[in-house]
Design goal:
Length: 229
């Protein structure tokens, strides 16, 4: 659906009692409507909120500019470059004769011959270890088991739990703060018990991860990491 201004939006029906418009930090516009409300009625509501939507999207664009300015420039692996890692920044240092990459304080020590593909492979290996550890931790806390775990190359979502309880998690979570990695793992494991985002789902999630609102906002504001490298 679209508005006269050209803004495209999505209508999502659920068991909610009221209608509302949500403008996500990514710029996505969603009209959340009750199950029995017609699309035409939801569209009329969106029209009445068009001015507010335009102003909200302008704020989103400004915030995105600020965040993009804070993101390191495209990474090539050269000496002195900065690489996001577990919520911080590591400065690349090249060392001849070093067999494997090492993290030392705020530096990433790399073998002199390591190319970008080697660095990404190392990052994926570190991500797999971080995620596997957290899967075991939150699996115990939630009392659930999963069919399989796969490291994903997704650029549109941090994680997914399939209908058959297979867990896919983006390796780019390695760029995020540790709490965000915890949150995504806990979120997807909660879907083993609750397949939808109903009240029971969030109650279970908050039982094991009470700081979810703050971390959800952090992930929304740092979604550009899904397309980094």
């Amino acid at each position: 659906m679209s508005l006269p201004s050209g803004i495209i939006y999505t209508i999502v029906h659920s068991s909610r009692k009221t209608i509302a418009v949500e403008v996500k930090p990514t710029g996505e516009v969603i009209v959340r409507a009750p199950l029995r409300m017609t699309n035409s009625a939801a569209h009329a509501f969106a029209l009445s909120k068009e001015e507010w939507i335009i102003k909200s999207l302008a704020k989103v664009k400004e915030r995105q500019k600020e965040l993009l300015a804070a993101v390191p420039p495209p990474f090539t692996g050269k000496e002195g470059e900065a690489l996001p890692y577990l919520g911080g920044l590591l400065t690349v240092r090249r060392m001849a004769g070093l067999p494997e990459p090492e993290v030392m304080e705020d530096s990433l020590l790399l073998p002199a011959e390591y190319g970008l593909s080697d660095i990404i492979r190392w990052l994926r290996e570190r991500a797999a270890k971080e995620l596997s550890h957290r899967l075991a931790k939150y699996g115990r806390l939630l009392g659930v088991s999963w069919k399989s775990f796969r490291l994903s190359d997704a650029r549109t979502r941090w994680g997914m739990c399939s209908g058959k309880n297979s867990i896919n998690l983006s390796w780019r979570l390695i760029f995020c703060i540790p709490e965000a990695i915890d949150y995504v793992v806990a979120h997807e494991l909660c879907h083993i018990k609750h397949k939808s985002h109903k009240r029971e789902f969030y109650a279970e999630l908050e039982r094991v991860f009470p700081d979810r609102v703050r971390v959800e906002r952090w992930l929304s504001l740092h979604c550009m990491f899904l397309n980094y490298l």
